[in-house]
């Protein structure tokens, strides 16, 4: 899906705010780290100031991410089904992300949070497969139902949360280095991040 300039502009602004909130920083704290005024940062987040490339580079650096990740467009192919190799009794899911992954198996019993402010955003990519049950993947304002043997891959720069639907579910999550660091910060800082 090709995004027009307005959609990309809005996505970048949401990412800046989501990353700031995920770090637990006020407007004042991020403004100081990026050497911009609090008023300028507020207008950038709220769409009342034009996004300038030089400011995006500075904000990306202050948020601990890259310009590429800040402006990356979302892909429509978030949920994938397995490829079944009946001759060998195998199920395989294609993983698009780079090597250097961490794998985690997790049992979930609670639904994802209703409040979008409880979603997390951080640099990186995640991939998950539902081993049993049904998971709900929240990406921004979109909701994906991921059933047993289905997989989902998404950039973690999108505000996201994962939870169970209709009873417990078990997932296998795979995180790239940046996503793993984002989760480690959440575990150390808050005990849980909702996904």
Please, could you describe this protein's structure?
- This protein has helices at 5-22, 27-34, 38-46, 53-62, 67-71, 177-190; strands at 79-80, 83-85, 90-92, 102-108, 125-132, 134-139, 142-147, 151-155, 160-164, 169-175.
- With 195 residues, the protein is of the alpha+beta class.
- A hairpin with a 4-residue loop joins strand 2 and strand 3 (90-92).
- The radius of gyration is 18 Å and the shape is elongated.
Secondary structure: helix percent: 25-40%
- What letter string, H or E per element, gives the SSE order? HHHHHEEEEEEEEEEH
Global structural class: alpha+beta
Q: How many β-strand runs?
A: 10
Tally of alpha and pi helices: 6
Biggest sheet details: 5 strands, antiparallel
- Rg result: 18 Å
The separation of the N and C termini measures 26 Å
Q: Which stretches are low in confidence, meaning pLDDT under 50 for 5 or more residues running?
A: 187-195
Q: Give the overall form.
A: elongated
Oligomer: single chain
Strand order of the largest sheet: 1-8-5-10-4
The residue-averaged pLDDT reads 81
Query: Strand share of the residues?
Result: 25-35%
């Amino acid at each position: 899906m090709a995004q027009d300039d307005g959609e990309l502009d809005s996505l970048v602004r949401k990412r800046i705010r989501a990353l700031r909130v995920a770090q637990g920083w006020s407007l004042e704290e991020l403004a100081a780290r990026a050497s911009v005024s609090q008023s300028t940062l507020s207008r950038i987040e709220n769409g009342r100031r034009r996004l300038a490339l030089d400011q995006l580079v500075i904000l990306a650096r202050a948020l601990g991410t890259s310009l590429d990740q800040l402006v990356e467009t979302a892909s429509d192919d978030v949920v994938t089904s397995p490829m079944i190799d009946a001759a060998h009794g195998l199920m395989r899911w294609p993983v698009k992300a780079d090597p250097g992954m961490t794998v985690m198996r997790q049992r979930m019993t609670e639904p994802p949070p209703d409040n979008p402010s409880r979603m997390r955003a951080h640099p990186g990519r995640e991939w998950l497969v539902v081993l049993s049950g049904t998971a709900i993947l929240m990406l921004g304002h979109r909701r994906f139902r991921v059933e047993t043997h289905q997989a989902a891959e998404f950039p973690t720069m999108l505000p996201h949360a994962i939870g169970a639907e209709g009873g417990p579910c078990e997932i296998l999550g795979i995180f790239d280095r940046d996503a793993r660091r984002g989760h480690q910060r959440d575990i150390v800082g808050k005990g849980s991040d909702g996904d």
